[in-house]
Design brief:
- By secondary structure, the chain is α/β, with parallel strands linked by helices.
- Helix content is 42%, strand content 21%.
- It contains 19 helices and 18 strands.
- The longest helix is centred in the middle third of the chain and has 23 residues.
- 40% of the residues are buried.
Length: 541
């Protein structure tokens, strides 16, 4: 075989997937460099020869590179990892994708650097912790989703390992600032080096999650972390480390599998410190992961196959007692609690499936009853869905297809899960309102962020939380809270709806403070939508 042709062939394969190729000696010195150096680092690749490879990378990634050079064994590959390289004398940096391996029988480390991240932008653009360099918890879902997509496309099995550091705070207290920085940087390097596509994060203080190639033994990750803690500890004790590894089902979409992972990670992060031992809870975590994956699949199937029903509860004008419209509520045929099921769907990020299904049902029902101007429905939209720009685009595309009177379809923004991007939500709501639909903020006063939402979101109605209504006659404080909220809405020219009304005395108090509409068992319980019968036509406005 022609050796030169074979060399050229392998070089071509390398450059098909990377822009810069490096060979690094055991001492960390670049012994070979070729590729688009001028375009990437402001100088020819050959200028890297003889220099420490760490100098090519930004300060935030040098601990990672040092760890990889020290720990990658012959026959093992790593990456892709999102890192930053120094692009020139002015010390500016560029986001790149790093892969590498140590060839069997070779002592040197082989690295490939690509300007185009093959796993998507999440890992390179994600916010990172300043001490560990790990992806932030908020960006972990996107990073994990892209990592899963990349792994499955490459036929690589991945797993998720949860790691808990016992008494980490006590150990950190024994370190000075420099030692702390070095220790946490090394922890981040170990986890990133073991991760697949940088899908690793600190979910809570002393608790970490890392998605990795199934071929990587979690015991080795645990060993490296334990050694790092002993090396850093002035007393040579270190921390106790517990871990649990979870499988990821192959028959779920990348997005749903990532959501199940994030749900498990979130549960892991919120467990009360001191009451939870990861080592003893390994089986429980695995069951939780499996149950989460099954619940996601069951929920999506129920929505897709329409194995759910909708009921409607009247909302009336408190002075005339005429029905203004009905709120559309979901019921699941298998008897599951609507509240628990919807809360779960919001937590794992799949509630938009139900939001679309409810909107489509309402559109169809109102369209079939065009001759009945007394038929008006309010559909719940999760704040979680509304802060997804793609959801807003798809929803508006759906609404633009209808031609009936738009004031007969209202939307209630639910806040059972915290809204983190109010700007996106408000932009979508204003587009909905511009089409002619009214918008209501649901359960106002129930959460700590209610007034922040009212300040940021322009709406037509506010629904006052039923907790205050139920207690307003017995508790003067609740009555005064209702009065204050109603007064604020009146000053803002926002109409109000009170929920959970059960008796006439509550109505007297509510009308006295200016609440215009109400909902509750006094006016009617939820009934199947087809059973809506209105003797008085509403004035939907």
């Amino acid at each position: 075989m022609d050796i030169k042709a074979q060399r050229n062939r392998f070089m071509a394969f390398s450059f098909a997937g990377a822009d810069l190729l490096l060979e690094v000696s055991p001492a960390g010195t670049v012994t070979f460099a070729v590729g688009a150096g001028g375009h990437m680092i402001g100088a020819g690749a050959e200028t890297l020869m003889g220099k420490p490879v760490e100098d090519l990378f930004a300060d935030s990634d040098r601990t990672l590179i040092h760890h990889i050079a020290k720990t990658v064994t012959p026959g093992r590959r790593f990456g892709p990892l999102g890192v930053k390289i120094v692009t020139g004398k002015d010390e500016t940096t560029k986001d790149v994708s790093l892969n590498g391996c140590r060839w069997p029988g070779e002592k040197n480390l082989f690295l490939t650097i690509s300007q185009a991240a093959p796993i998507g932008p999440a890992s390179t653009t994600a916010k990172r912790d300043g001490e560990t360099g790990l992806v932030s918890k908020d960006d972990f879902e996107n990073t994990a989703s892209e990592a899963l997509e990349s792994a499955r496309a490459a036929g690589i099995d991945v797993k998720l390992t949860m790691i808990e550091f016992g008494e980490q705070d006590e150990m950190l207290a024994r370190l000075n600032q420099g030692e702390r920085k070095e220790f946490l940087g090394r922890i981040g390097a170990i986890l990133r080096g073991a991760s697949f596509a940088d899908a690793t994060t600190e979910v809570a203080k002393g608790r970490y999650s890392v998605m990795h190639d199934a071929k990587i033994d979690p015991k080795n990750i645990e060993r490296d972390l334990a050694e790092a803690s002993k090396d850093a500890d002035p007393n040579g004790i270190g921390v106790q480390i517990n871990r649990s590894t979870l499988d990821i089902e192959d028959d779920m979409s990348n997005e749903d599998a990532a959501r199940a992972l994030v749900f498990a990670v979130d549960t892991f992060s919120k467990t009360v410190e001191g009451s939870f031992n990861l080592g003893s809870m390994s089986g429980a975590l695995e069951r939780m992961m499996n149950e989460t994956q099954e619940r996601i699949k069951a929920f999506k199937a129920a929505v897709a196959e329409k194995r759910l029903t909708f009921v409607a509860q009247p909302i009336v004008d408190l002075k005339t007692r005429q029905t203004h419209h009905h709120e559309l509520l979901v019921r699941f045929k298998d008897g599951e609690s609507p509240f628990e099921t919807v809360s779960f769907a919001e937590k794992v990020g799949i509630i938009s499936d139900l939001d679309f299904a409810a909107t489509e049902f309402a559109l169809k029902f109102i369209s079939e009853n065009k001759s009945r101007p007394d038929v008006g429905l309010a559909v719940n939209l999760s704040g979680h869905s509304l802060q997804n720009e793609q959801f807003g685009i798809t929803l508006l595309r759906l609404l633009n297809k209808v031609d009936f009177l738009r004031n007969r379809l209202l939307f209630e923004v639910t806040e059972s899960s915290e809204i983190t991007d109010l700007d996106i939500v408000n932009r979508t709501l204003q587009k909905i309102r511009k089409l002619g639909h009214k918008v209501c903020m649901d359960d106002f006063g129930a959460g700590a962020a209610a007034f922040q939402y009212l300040r940021a979101l322009e709406v037509d109605y506010v629904k006052l939380d039923g907790v205050y209504v139920r207690q307003c006659l017995a508790d003067r404080k609740d009555a005064m809270m209702l009065k204050a909220m109603a007064g604020l809405c009146r000053d803002l020219k926002i109409k109000t709806i009170a929920e959970m009304i059960e008796n006439e005395d509550q109505i007297k108090l509510l009308t006295a403070i200016g609440v215009g509409q109400g909902q509750g068992w006094l006016f009617g319980k939820p009934v199947p939508v087809d059973h809506i019968v209105q003797l008085n036509r509403p004035n939907v406005a």
